[in-house]
Structures are given as structure tokens and as C-alpha cells.
Give the backbone structure.
Amino acid sequence: MPVIEVRNLRKHYGGKPAVEDVSFTVERGEIFGILGPNGAGKTTTVECLEGLRRPDGGAATVLGLDPWRDTAELRQRLGVQLQESRLPDKLRVGEALELYASFYRNPADPDVLLEQLGLSGRRGTAYRKLSGGQQQRVSIALALIGNPEVAVLDELTTGLDPQARRDTWEVIEGIRDRGVTILLVTHFMAEAERLCDRIAVIDAGRVVAVDTPAGLVASVADEQVIRFRPSEPVPDELFTGLPEVRTVTRRGEQVEVSGVGNVLHAVTSVLARRGIVAGELRVEQAGLDDAFVALTGRRIGQGDH
Ligand SMILES: Nc1ncnc2c1ncn2[C@@H]1O[C@H](COP(=O)(O)OP(=O)(O)OP(=O)(O)O)[C@@H](O)[C@H]1O
């Protein structure tokens, strides 16, 4: 039996759709990613799984339980890291863990958990005195203090520097190795690619693909991405009219053209005819980032390189 099963989930806020049609299943021991741009409906989906919101349509079960009806039972078995979870500034790390442990039937040993998360020296430190990465690890510890079978981690590494982010990824892999199934909400491509066994790509309240990171990349494997800085402004239409071109995106002055076949020749020819020089020209095979653009027509995870 899957650990999480979501079928045609739907949730509207005041008539406005947040989740239109979301279906996926998560198997025991997986790190399953929900990837999508801001406002895609990721948080609403996981809030339905946590019993915090009642779906308007469809069905969801977690560990065979109905999150809305069996909330009390589910809370004992599901760990939740809240988005931007904040604790009272003066609360010490050890106190926070003891407090949260008291909510559970069968809590983890706070000292063991702090050791596993590299926080054993911080037991007596006030929450506000911790670095961003340490605060994040405390919020992960709080999600795990009830010894959950499933943990939902929402925007795990948002706001962390690259080193703290990599350290956190190692922590998550360690938790999975202990047998905890993890549902990871993210808009960072590198995070999804590195950590997730499978990913549901969500856009505008709908699942547009569910696959392994490699499978998602393979779906655009014949695609190339050309990046360059034109010597003068060029309109998108110059490229979008070419049969080889799929998408045109811009990052500041840089133009990114993705396409298939001999797209490089097509792009450089059209530029040459106009006497435009393509500075800093680079050609790359498609990655998860590009698979996402191909699936949704949009780019997310900027700055995540
Ligand atoms: N309580 C609410 N009341 C009304 N609208 C809401 C509420 N919560 C979310 N929304 C809207 O529902 C849509 C989906 O939001 P949701 O937070 O689920 O997306 P998300 O993918 O998690 O985005 P983010 O990455 O920004 O958290 C958005 O358009 C959002 O503005």
C-alpha cells in the first residue's frame, strides 16, 4: 500500500482555484518531491495531507488514514516542518525539543536527535542566537521528534547559503536511510535533482508530470539550450519563428534559446543575417531546469546554481 495516495485533489479559496487536479502516490522509503513555481498549489496540497485543510474534491490518504477525519491519529505518525517555522526567541533548543516531544506517544530522544542533526552543542542556546542553518535544523528536529513514519518538509532550504543547503541535504538523506518517507516541497531544481527519488511537477494547480529526475530530463534529452549575450537587443520573435526553437527565455541581458535538431545553426544564422554578434555563446544539453520549462513553459529556481 502506498504511504501517501492523492487522487484528483481539488481545493478552491473563495471560488479561486488553488489546486485543480492533483494525483500522485508515494511509496514507503521514498523521498518524493513536489516541485513548482510560487502559487502552483504545493503548500495547499500538503496542507490537505496534513489535515490542516479540507479538500473540496478528490481524495487523499496518508498511512491509510483520512487526514481530515483521522487528524489526531495522523498527527502522531506524520512529522511536519512548517514553512518559515519560528519559535519564541528566548526558548532554548533543548526546551523546544522537550516541549514538542511531550505532544507524542512515542517521541524520539531529544539528545539523540540533536546529535544526529549536528546540534548537540546547542542544547542550551536560545533559538534566536542560532544561525539560519542551525534554526533550519531545529525545525527539522521538531518535525522528527515524534518519531514519524512520514515527514513533510516544506521549503526546506529557502534562505540558506549554499553550504548550509548542502549540509541540510545530507541530513535529509540520513533521515531517509533510517526509513522515514519524506515528502519534500521545493522550488529549487538542484535540491529536487539531488534528493528526490521521484518528483511531481505541479503548475497552476495541476500535476504536469510525475517521474524520476532522470526520467524528466530524458523527456527533453534531444533538447539543447543556447545561451548568449547579443551585441544589440533582439526580439523573441526572431527565434520563436524558427521551427527548431521551442522556448526563448531571458535572464537580464542574456538570451536562452532551447530547441531541437540543428537549433544552434538556425539561431546563429538568423543572428548573422542581422549582423548581431552572440557574445559568451554557450551550448548545453538540457537538464531538469529545462525539463521544467518544457513542461510548464516557465522557469523557476533562478539563482539555484
Ligand atoms: N488561505 C488562502 N486564501 C486564499 N488564497 C490562498 C490561500 N492560500 C493560498 N492561496 C492561493 O492559492 C494559490 C496556491 O497557493 P499555494 O500556497 O498552495 O502555492 P505554492 O505552490 O505553495 O506557492 P509558494 O511556493 O509561494 O508557497 C495561490 O494563488 C495563492 O495565492
Summary: Residues 13, 18, 36, 38-44, 187 surround adenosine-5'-triphosphate (CB under 6 Å). The mean pLDDT is 89.
